[in-house]
Structures are given as structure tokens and as C-alpha cells.
Amino acid sequence: xxxxxxxxxxxxxxxxxxxxxxxxxxxxxxxxxxxxxxxxxxxxxxxxxxxxxxxxxxxxxxxxxxxxxxxxxxxxxxxxxxxxxxxxxxxxxxxxxxxxxxxxxxxxxxxxxxxxxxxxxxxxxxxxxxxxxxxxxxxxxxxxxxxxxxxxxxxxxxxxxxxxxxxxxxxxxxxxxxxxxxxxxxxxxxxxxxxxxxxxxxxxxxxxxxxxxxxxxxxxxxxxxxxxxxxxxxxxxxxxxxxxxxxxxxxxxxxxx
Length: 257
Ligand SMILES: C[S@@+](CC[C@H](N)C(=O)[O-])C[C@H]1O[C@@H](n2cnc3c(N)ncnc32)[C@H](O)[C@@H]1O
Known about the structure:
Keywords: Methyltransferase, S-adenosyl-L-methionine, Transferase. This is Methyltransferase domain-containing protein. It is built from seven helices and nine strands; from the N terminus they run ααβαβαββββαβααββ. By secondary structure, it is of the alpha/beta class. It has a single domain, classed as 3-Layer(aba) Sandwich (Rossmann fold). It has a nine-stranded mixed β-sheet with strand order 3-4-5-2-1-6-7-9-8. A hairpin with a 4-residue loop joins strand 4 and strand 5. Helix 1 crosses helix 4. It binds S-adenosylmethionine (SAM). S-adenosylmethionine binds next to helix 1 and strand 2.
């Protein structure tokens, strides 16, 4: 009887794991199409290349991270795409880790660090666990894979999470798991910098990108369960997208009990 129960539990685990892999694959396929279009010269969509916007974001982060006291920070950029913030923060001496489900997005990210691809080494087979890319400086790591995956190696690892258009890009059902992962990866007292869009048409307009306000971020099943709200930064820069504004928020990881 006990052996049957163990077999049944193992079967359920395998089915569940396969469902999770299948879901990741569907998400990946759809974002991979978007990236193929962008990299073939299609519309830039969410991309902001202006380094002034990245400088401003890092400056907000430094200002709201007094516990780091001017030291280099470990910064995680989930759903990073090829956001130039990663290269900018690295250039300022910080240790950066970026995660994206589309390998081509992270290939574009590596291109921002210069043409010499020998500066990067990779581990992993690019399969379900995804490849891990490391820069020879030892301060930049790019992880191919699903942000929703369990990553025990990242627990309590980061002083800062930089989330630009990540929370607002995910399907609504994926938000609680995303917020759980972020709350796992950040250190106690760590800073969460979030950029989201607000839309003239409001929440009813759907997404992605979704219309996101403080109330959405701070829902108990989202960041509200583990983070304190620090401040709103209002509109952080002007977007060339009709009917939308880019707004910023700062949250802080509450100490674990
Ligand atoms: C709206 S874009 C934002 C990219 C970047 N943060 C920026 O603002 O430039 C969302 C990104 O998330 C990636 N993505 C979507 N779902 C993901 C997931 N479950 N895990 C990891 N990356 C994901 C997509 O490939 C895409 O690059």
C-alpha cells in the first residue's frame, strides 16, 4: 500500500513538473516571436535606450539603499530583455544578474558589453534549466530561463531588485509566483525599484503592458505580503507612447521572522 502511495505521489510530481515545463515553453515561444521581430528591425515596444533614464534609476536606487552605504551592490534584473540598465550598473562597479526566458534577448544584452564574445563563458545546455552566462569580470551573470522557476542558489542574494516593465508584463495569474520569487531572492531590507506603466484608459484596458498602481503592487498576494512601501517616484521619464506614462515606485523587503 505504502509503495503504491509513493508511486502515485511520484507520478503526480512528474505530471506537475511536465505541466510547468510546458507552460514555460509556451511563454518562451510567444516572447521569442516578439524578440525575433524586434531584432529584425520591428517596433521597439517597451525598450528605452536613453542612458539618462538608466542613470536616474540607479540614482533613485542608491538614494533609497542607505544600508548599502555606497558599497557596490548585487542587483537582480528579472525579465531583463536587453535593458541597457544592466550594462550601465555594471559599468558603475555593481554586480549584476539578469534573467530572461528568451536566449536571443540575452544575446543582445551581451552585445552591449562589447563585440568580444570571448569575454563570456557559458554553462548549461540551454534546455529547461537554461544556460548561465558569466562575464570575465566576474560581475555580470545572465540566466536563460523562467523567472517563476525555483532557484535555491539565489535565495537572499541581492541588495537590489530592478524591475522595469516586468511585473506589468506578466499575466495576472503569474504575479503572485513572481512576487514570491523576488521576495525569496532579495536580502532582508533590500530595495525593490519598480517601473510600471499607467494608461489613460486605466486598468480595464488589459495588457500587457498592464496598468499598474501602488494598490496592484501592494496587494497581499503580490509584493504586499513581504515588502513595505517606501515611496512613489511619480513619472520617471517621458515615454513616446501615446496614452501611457512610465512611473516608479520603491519598496523595501521586510525582515524575515
Ligand atoms: C516587457 S519586456 C521588458 C524587458 C526589460 N525589462 C525592459 O524593460 O527593457 C518583458 C521581458 O520579459 C521576458 N519574459 C517574459 N516572461 C518571462 C518569464 N516567465 N521569465 C523570464 N523572462 C520572461 C521577455 O522575453 C521580455 O524580454
